[in-house]
Design brief:
Blueprint lengths: L15 E2 L2 E2 L10 H4 L73 E3 L3 E3 L4 E2 L16 H13 L4 E3 L8 H10 L7 E6 L1 E5 L2 E4 L3 H15 L4 E6 L8 H13 L3 E7 L3 H10 L2 E7 L8 H10 L2 E5 L27 H18 L3 H12 L12 H9 L7 H10 L5
Helix pairs in contact: 2-3, 4-5, 8-9, 8-11
This protein binds NADP nicotinamide-adenine-dinucleotide phosphate.
Protein name: NADP-dependent oxidoreductase domain-containing protein
InterPro entries: Aldo-Keto_reductase (IPR050791), NAD(P)_OxRdtase_dom_sf (IPR036812), NADP_OxRdtase_dom (IPR023210)
Keywords: Oxidoreductase
């Protein structure tokens, strides 16, 4: 596609017993192709134990707050998820096929029942500076090029937020991609005000949300935001007021679909009684499974689950300093030996596929649930290409089972 604006053209089950994982044979023939039949979302039923949702707030995007900010909304007690069983009727989460996109074999997702998106999106967190403050690259052309490359490579879902920068990420999205090509879905967020690097507070009063939405519309140069996510519930404002405001914005045609962020299963259940919720965005990755109960609810209700930190904010690509894992389902930090087991699994499986550990982490998300729509963030075109190639990796049952087991290491 030609872009007009800007300076660029465009073991069998390897359970972890305590901290020690058995290593299954990996790299065998995958049965993925058989399971990837049109209209049958690749979907693995998992007998998961009950768990609680916790620690949804510990991320660099919204941590390091000082003084002015309130704590991120407590996710609150969640209903025990109970065992995942094969008993429930699962909605058809897929839309049409998308054979042209990178790899192109995964069924698409129907967001809110009206917008068809590919399963692997792009997050703009990598286009802003440390503490989500300012631009990542001094030369905006570098960020514009990454955004355009993502779309040229078939990405149909871009995740951003008004406070990334602030304003910076949304402005980059508009500058790089407006006028938006048909089929490109832009998701942004409001409800959080960032006043410095890693300094932020929630702001969920109706007048706040209305003003933020209008500002995002202006920055994104659009009349309607495809997916508007409440970045955090404001604990000082009734949920009904916050969601009521979003419903009003929806009725006014300013937003197409409503999403929630860092939310527990009980809250999501309540929220669904108040508004049509098209998506959830919680921290989640192969080693950080605190939101498994929320994912289960999303699957049952046809709600998209955008996992933030799909790469553990770098941890899963071997980059020190990421804060996304290893974690157990409880969100507790894993022990050193559990980390070693996780590293063993990821590197072993990666080697079997000639892939990177990050690609395996993304492939696992894509296999794990048809409701998962990862939006890994990067400011690098090479990393972008690498991440998108994960869609073509077909993990074997044994590999999936081994990776599934990693999420049970702590609790
Ligand atoms: N709702 C929320 O509260 C929330 C919180 C955090 C994030 N998010 C959203 O979720 C998206 C993803 O989260 P995230 O970007 O923070 O974390 P992430 O995707 O888990 O990891 C991003 C980190 O991994 C590195 N990386 C990415 N691809 C790589 C590759 N192929 N090889 C080596 N390193 C690679 C990036 O550095 P390089 O740029 O150098 O590649 C960056 O440091 C964000 O962009 C944002 O849209 C939402």
């Amino acid at each position: 596609m030609q872009w007009n604006e800007g300076t660029e053209g465009s073991t069998a089950r390897a359970r972890l017993h305590g901290d020690v994982a058995e290593r299954p044979d990996v790299g065998g023939e995958s049965d993925l192709r058989r399971r990837r039949t049109p209209g049958f979302p690749l979907f693995k039923l998992r007998g998961m134990d009950a768990q609680t949702h916790s620690d949804a707030a510990a991320d660099p995007e919204l941590t390091g707050q000082h003084g002015v900010q309130r704590e991120p909304h407590a996710t609150g007690p969640t209903t025990a998820a109970g065992a995942r069983t094969a008993g429930g009727t699962r909605p058809d989460l897929t839309g049409g096929t998308r054979p042209d996109l990178a790899g192109g074999t995964l069924p698409d997702f129907s967001l809110g029942g009206t917008l068809t998106v590919g399963r692997l999106g792009f997050g703009t967190g990598g286009l802003v500076g440390p503490g989500y403050w300012g631009p990542r690259h001094a030369d905006p052309a570098r960020s514009l090029a990454v955004l355009r490359r993502a779309v040229d490579r078939g990405v149909t879902l871009i995740d951003t937020a008004d406070n990334y920068g602030p304003d910076v990420a949304e402005e980059l999205v508009a500058r790089a991609l407006h006028p938006y090509p048909d089929g490109l879905v832009i998701a942004t967020k409001g409800g959080v005000v960032r006043t410095g690097p890693d300094v932020w507070h929630v702001a969920g009063r109706p007048e706040d949300l209305r003003a933020m939405c209008d500002a995002s519309l202006r920055r994104l140069k659009t009349d309607t935001i495809d997916l508007y996510q409440l970045h955090r519930l404001d604990p000082d404002v009734p949920m009904a007021e916050q969601l009521g405001t979003l419903v009003e914005l929806q009725q006014a045609g300013k937003i197409r679909h409503i999403g929630l962020d860092s939310i527990g299963a009980a809250e999501l259940t309540r929220a669904r009684e108040l508004a049509p919720i098209a998506s959830v965005q919680n921290r989640y990755n192969v080693l950080d499974r605190a939101s498994e109960d929320v994912l289960e609810l999303c699957e049952r209700t046809g709600t998209a689950f955008l996992p933030w930190f799909p790469l553990g904010h770098g941890t899963l690509v071997g980059r020190p300093g990421g804060s996304g894992g290893p974690k157990g389902r409880s969100g507790a930090s894993a022990s050193a030996s559990a980390s070693a087991s996780a590293t063993d699994a990821l590197t072993t499986i990666a080697a079997a596929h000639g892939a990177t550990t990050g690609q395996i982490a993304l492939a696992w998300l894509l296999h794990h649930s048809p409701a998962l729509l990862p939006t890994p963030g990067t400011g690098s075109p090479d990393h972008l290409d690498e991440n998108l190639a994960a869609e073509r990796i077909a993990l074997t049952e044994a590999e999936l089972t081994w990776l599934d087991g990693l999420g049970t290491v702590a609790g």
